[in-house]
Design brief:
The protein has 261 residues and is α+β, with helices and mostly antiparallel strands. Helices cover 25% and strands 36% of the residues. Strands 1, 2, 3, 4, 5, 6, 7, 8, 9, 10 and 11 form an 11-stranded antiparallel sheet that branches.
């Protein structure tokens, strides 16, 4: 299974998103790489300008806005794709979109998520725990919602503990379009590495934009962050973001398999 992920962030736009071919969205050269089974990833420090953006006006608006408002110092972005099982119809059905939304709302399923660390040459756990909560103050656990019809927007809060930044509270905003599903992660607490504050509150945006194409789902994943100026910190955070993208990609594949089985 293949897929592409975008983590970028977030201006809410209500313009419709239309189905295009993979080749039109990312170009023939990058499409060939993706169809060949490889992902495309880049990590940039200081000059956080995206280069893997799909040719989609709505996604470009999000990234332009976050760069303007956040002034990020680190950017990671990656592309891949998820091959549809049924390609007889060039658009996903309402039932398929709803099923995928419900599966991605299940943030509890991120608990125990694993990824392969290139630096360590070993498989590691990314999120030790992940739990949907009622709100950022009381932090009471609650069941992830499930919908019978897709809403236009959904907001969830989650308490998540990962190997790099520890135990933190995040907000997830979901936006549902005809041919796209977008979910955005934002940190509501300061992210620290050991005891060193690394990313201040609201200074991280991670977005997964799932674009429906003629025969696959393109998922462009990117993370934008404004980090502290500490020697050596940016490199460590950049490596963590690259691992984060890989982990979220693996999780999305699992959720998509459940939705389209």
């Amino acid at each position: 299974m293949k897929l592409s992920i975008c983590i970028a962030v977030a201006v809410v736009v209500t313009a419709p998103v239309f189905s295009d071919s993979l080749e039109k969205l990312v170009g023939k050269e990058q499409a060939a790489i993706l169809r060949g089974g490889s992902s495309i990833t880049r990590v940039v420090q200081d000059a956080a300008k995206p280069e893997l953006l799909p040719k989609n006006a709505t996604v470009k608006t999000w990234t332009d806005d976050v760069i303007h408002t956040l002034a990020p110092t680190i950017l990671t972005e990656s592309l891949n794709f998820y091959q549809k099982k049924n390609t007889s119809d060039t658009r996903w059905t309402g039932a398929e979109k709803l099923a995928l939304l419900n599966e991605t709302l299940n943030l509890n399923s991120l608990s125990g998520l694993e990824y392969y660390s290139e630096s360590r040459k070993a498989t590691r756990i990314f999120y030790e725990t992940s739990q949907v909560i009622d709100d950022p103050v009381s932090k009471n656990p609650k069941a992830p919602p499930r919908y019978e019809t897709p809403p236009a927007t959904v907001t969830l809060y989650a308490r998540q503990k990962d190997l790099t930044f520890g135990d933190n509270i995040y907000q997830y905003d979901y936006y549902v379009y005809d041919n796209a599903l977008i979910f955005i992660q934002q940190n509501l607490t300061t992210l620290s590495v050991s005891i060193i504050p690394a990313i201040g509150k609201n200074n991280l945006r991670s977005v997964v934009a799932v674009l429906d194409t003629e025969d696959c789902l393109l998922v462009y994943a990117a993370s934008f962050a404004k980090t502290v100026s500490i020697p050596g910190m940016k490199g460590r955070i950049g490596q963590s973001f690259s691992s984060r993208a890989n982990a979220v990609l693996n999780w999305f594949i699992q959720q998509a398999d459940k939705a389209f089985q």
